[in-house]
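Deliverable D4.2, example record:
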Amino acid sequence: MSYILIKLIIAALNAPKPIPEKIEYYKTLYSIMHENALFTTLSTKLGTFLSKTTALETVQVEFKQKFPTKSKDDRDFADREADAAVKEVVAGVQGLANADLPHAADIITAAGLKVVYRTVRVPQVADVKDGPTSPSVHIMGDGSGNHNFRKSLDGLTWLNMLGNGTSNLIDYEVIVGRTYYYQTQKVGTKGRLGPWSRVMSILVR
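Output generated by the structure prediction step:
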């Protein structure tokens, strides 16, 4: 299997473990996002988050008073509820970041969350991107193994390209400023051919 490396930008909590400090951290997160129009679409999740944080704060006070009216189990339940609510908010922020990758880190930071970068290896999928030199196009097929490749100037009339027995091919016969279309086709055992991939286009730079 052929793999490629992709860089993920992840929204992460940096909550302290002691309950009182965690409550203050959660209240700060809520205030930051509640006051920023960027997170308007998360208003329902933020409302639940505030409610669960307030409930945790109330139970914590009642658990710690001289004559407790709430048990440790009550406090721990409220703690889990607040943790679950904040995870929903973080997931919402991650969704906003994923929808605007060029500004993903800024969105996460604006939410008061920690930005974590992680590089992961994922199976290669059919795609095209700028080649190693200009002008050139790097064509990738699904997975590994031998692939056929073809190109077009209009996405309708195709010209077969000479493969190299792998799932990657560099096309140097391109002109800057022109759009090209490509497809790949996996060649299986005994020459069995898979379907052509989706049509992929790229403007050569």
